[in-house]
Amino acid sequence: MKKIIFHTVIFLVWCNTTFANCVGNCSDGFGTYTDPNGDKYEGMWKNDDLNGLGTYTWANGSKYIGNHLNGKGNGQGTFIWFNGDKYNGDVKDDLLNGQGTYTWANGDKYIGTFKNDKRTGQGTFIWAGEFAGDVYVGEFKDGDMHGQGTYTWADGAKYIGMWKNHNQHGQGTFTDENGNSTNGIWEEGKFVSGDAEIDMPDIKNKLLAASSGSGFFVSQTGHIITNFHVIDSCDSVKVSFKGDNINAKVLAIDKMNDLAILKTAINPDQIFSVSKEDADLLENIIIAGFPLGKSVSSSIKTSKGSITSLSGFGDNFSEFQTDAALNQGNSGGPILNQKGNIVGVAVAVFGKEEGIESFNFGIKSSTLRTFAKSNGLNFQSPNLKDLSNKDLGKLIINATVYLECYMTEAKIQTLIADENSKKAFFSKYK
What pLDDT, in 10s, does the model give residues 28-78? Predict the structure, then answer.
């Protein structure tokens, strides 16, 4: 599924007609509450919380119009995201759950059932734009075509049969545009029952793992921090966690400072705290992540160094410079001190193509805090004492994650050809 910007309802303190940020009755009745971060809710209240019909508008322009229960979207509602996507249907605890219609900004449309924000169950996907005319009707699981279904191409070709993870997989029949049919067993999109050469059209919405990056947990409810360029243009972002690939939602982005907030259904064992003070010159730091993706190994890797400059490239004072080793795949990973507090977010290396080493950057914790606060995300209190290397290692393993960006092959090739793209694609596409 295309990346989707979902929302997090900000916890609203008790508010009534005497509260400066409330107009009306924000206890039991109709009232308008404006959060200092720019978010606004206008609608019904009960027991000092959002209950009943109302409109929640985020500072970035995204909006939810519909029913609320105990502070969360519940019932029938409509989401309108700032990127042009729109959903109308059933909502439960701020998530798409039940029957609904999701329309992408490019005109693609899904009509069917959802579970925890993912296409799951029976549904219909209708493509628009370049792939107008392609239609899939059948079963979905975790956003992919999965189970029994029929895919019909715009030219009249059709596949009827079993699917797994967005590929033809199992018993099925393919009929080309001329009416010639082939029946048999398929595995991962390929016909394996015999020697027949099947010239089958591409599945237009088939997503491929295109690139990777790193990220880290900052909340017990699954919020992840990473770089914007790690998730930029991704049709789907997946988090590797305890052997599973779990879909992540993009909650907020900061293109200028190269930051993004993701949300997952994961409850991590440990999370990072974020330092309230920026790192000092010559302060020792540790960088964690998955450099070079999984081409070396799937284990997390660390490097040590120090802060070598209090500004980034071009005198960018939202960043610092470090001599700790960074490689492609480290992007979005944590930079921490001995207390285990985040002092920076790793960004892509500079100058490697020219052979320049030890010239890497991190986004300062103060920049991260400002971005998070403006989007209603609060961090746990920083640690005050140094951690042992054993405890530090355990924290890094439990709270740092591997991220994969999924795209269509056509988009991958387009971005590779774009000289301004910052994405580091897997070598097999280059």
Answer: 999 999 988 778 999 999 998 999 999 999 876 789 999 999 989 999 999
Q: Which residues are within 8 A (CB) of 252 and not within 5 positions of it... i.e. 6 or more apart?
A: 5, 60, 260, 261, 371, 375, 377
Non-local CB neighbours of 108 within 8 Å, separated by 6+ positions: 2, 125, 126, 127, 128, 129, 205
Render pLDDT for 326-378 as a digit per residue (tens, 0 to 9). 887 889 999 999 999 999 999 865 544 444 555 689 999 999 999 999 999 99
Residue in 347, 359, 373 with CA at minimum distance from that of residue 274 = 373
Identity (one letter) of the amino acid at 421? S
- Amino acid symbol at 303: S
Q: Which of 41, 32, 35, 49 is nearest to 373 (CA)?
A: 35
- The mean predicted confidence, pLDDT, of the chain is 86
Domain ranges in the chain are 1-89, 106-206, 208-430
Residue with tokens 């009707």: 137
- Asked if CATH classification 2.30.110.70 holds for the domain at 208-430, the reply, yes or no, is no
Write out the DSSP string of 210-236: EEEEEEEE-STT-EEEE-HHHHTT-SE
DSSP string, 240-268: EETTEEEEEEEEEEETTTTEEEEE-S---
Q: What is the CATH number of domain 106-206?
A: 2.20.110
More confident residue, 317 or 188: 317
Q: Which of 144-158, 220-234, 403-417 has the lowest mean pLDDT?
A: 403-417
Could you give the CA distance from residue 422 to residue 159 in angstroms, rounded to a whole number?
Answer: 37
Site of tokens 């992007």: 331
The total of other beta-carbon atoms located within 10 Å of residue 357's CB is 10
Q: Rounded to an integer, what distance in angstroms lies between the CA atom of residue 207 and that of residue 167?
A: 10
Record: fold of 1-89: 2.20.110
Task: Judge whether 1-89 and 106-206 match in fold.
Answer: yes
Structure tokens at 365: 């914790």
Q: What is the secondary structure of 312-370 as a DSSP string?
A: -TTS-TTEEEE-S---TT-TT-EEE-TTSEEEEEE---SSGGGT--S-EEEEEHHHHHH
